[in-house]
Amino acid sequence: MSTSVMWFRTDFRLADHPALRAAVDAADQVVPLLVLDDHLWGTGASVRRSCLAQLMQEFSDRIGGLHVVHGDPAAEVVRVARAAGADTVHVTADFTPYGSQRDDDVRQSLADHGIDLVRTGSAYAVTPGSVTKADGTPYRVFTPFFRGWADHGWREPAPAVRDVAWTRPDGRSHQIPDAAVPDGVTLPEIGEAAARRRWRDFLDSDVADYADTRDLPGVDRTSRMSVHLTWGTIHPRTMLADLAERAGSPGPDAYARELAFREFYADVLHHRPDSAFGYYDPTFEQMEYDEPGDDLKAWKQGRTGIPIVDAGMRQLLAEGWMHNRVRMIVASFLVKDLHLEWQHGAAHFLDRLVDADLASNQHGWQWVAGSGTDASPYFRVFNPMTQGKKFDADGTYVRRWVPELRDVPDQHVHTPWELADPPADYPAPLVDHAEERVESLRRYQHLKN
User: CB pairs under 8 A, 24+ apart, for 423-430?
Assistant: First the structure.
């Protein structure tokens, strides 16, 4: 019997999976391979590691067992393919800087043994690099990219793969490691079935009002699909097909635009892999920044004394997730009130978010920091109190995550220090926003001069 290898990374699903379809069509039986790669797996008890461990175990149980190996993919994939007598190894194309280089290394190692690495599809409706300006250069502004992306279009979802003839070669297979969930964190339900249920519930209940509710953290009617997109338990093409049935309505159209933003940032990272951890606009490397200390610790713990900031950071600690509007607020506070480089905040998000996506995370932070593509001008400094009053007017979100403020009247829930007798167990503001805004603009002006 002929054999192919399906190398799973972050695409743990059976529906709308072009690479798996290719692996099934290529051979009589398929090895479901998982490589525990230390570069991505790492150590410690991060939320990301815990989420990945649970997801791998759920998928392994579902298909009757992944063939798990541990080590350098360039060596381990070759070893498994040769042991199985496979002619092809199939993957979903990876466009992250590390993933792209890793796959090139594996392709070369396989080629040395006469085995092909077949890359089919991607984690996006439109593969990064496919949408360019008329002169072939990439977009750095979202709106024209969005038009090009929509004009380019995408294929219909691939049929689900059923009744796969899975096989496992002789030889060692590791257990999927346990990864303890950090104290106090409750992970969301994960896996392909959970993704489809969540998506169906959102379509039935909330997508129609999405344009009106998506910026309101107290309402909490966003889709929460980001974790499922990050881990590949649903493909955006599947979601866009469902949204197309509702096209022309504000909510579904606004949601499709948000999916396009995810693809825009992936495209940006594809063209500028250095921007994963460095400045997209290198001018900002010369900005005057402060060294992190107790202020960064207070920010991480949700003890800054700024209610909407603390609510967001405490939600992150409890759920491994944060409302997108609040992500922008807490990021602006770190960069422009505390004067810390964006990488400190981005690294914390990558460690603590269940939906941590390298391209979206890093370039979302750079947008706030003023150094990215289509960037918010640096002189646009989010006022966290104004933002709180606008998007959480009655303080529902703040009271949910900052119990010290549950008895504070609505008019002071975002400015409790204005009370004659502020809550004793809630800290005073770490900084004066008005003063730090002036300081932030001074540093920016110095940079421009």
Answer: 426/305, 426/402, 427/298, 427/303, 427/304, 427/305, 428/305, 429/304, 429/305, 429/306, 430/295, 430/298, 430/299, 430/304, 430/305, 430/306, 430/338
> What is the number of other CB atoms lying within 10 angstroms of the CB of residue 310?
27
The whole model's pTM is what? 0.94
What is the C-alpha separation between 39 and 394, in angstroms, rounded? 45
Domains and CATH numbers, the chain: 3-121 (3.40.50.620), 123-156+192-271 (1.25.40.80), 282-448 (1.10.579.10)
**Planar angle of CA 337, 341, 343, nearest 5 degrees:** 130
Q: What is the pLDDT of residues 411-428, one digit of tens each?
A: 999 999 999 999 999 999
Residue-averaged pLDDT of the chain: 94
216's tokens: 């309101």
- Model confidence at 375, pLDDT cuts 50, 70, 90, reads low
Q: What is d(CA 427, CA 431) in angstroms, rounded to the nearest whole number?
A: 11
How far, in Å, CA of 246 to CA of 248, rounded?
6
Task: Give the residue-averaged pLDDT of 247-255.
Answer: 97
How far is the first Cα of the chain from the last one, in angstroms, to the nearest whole number? 70
409 pLDDT more than 80? yes
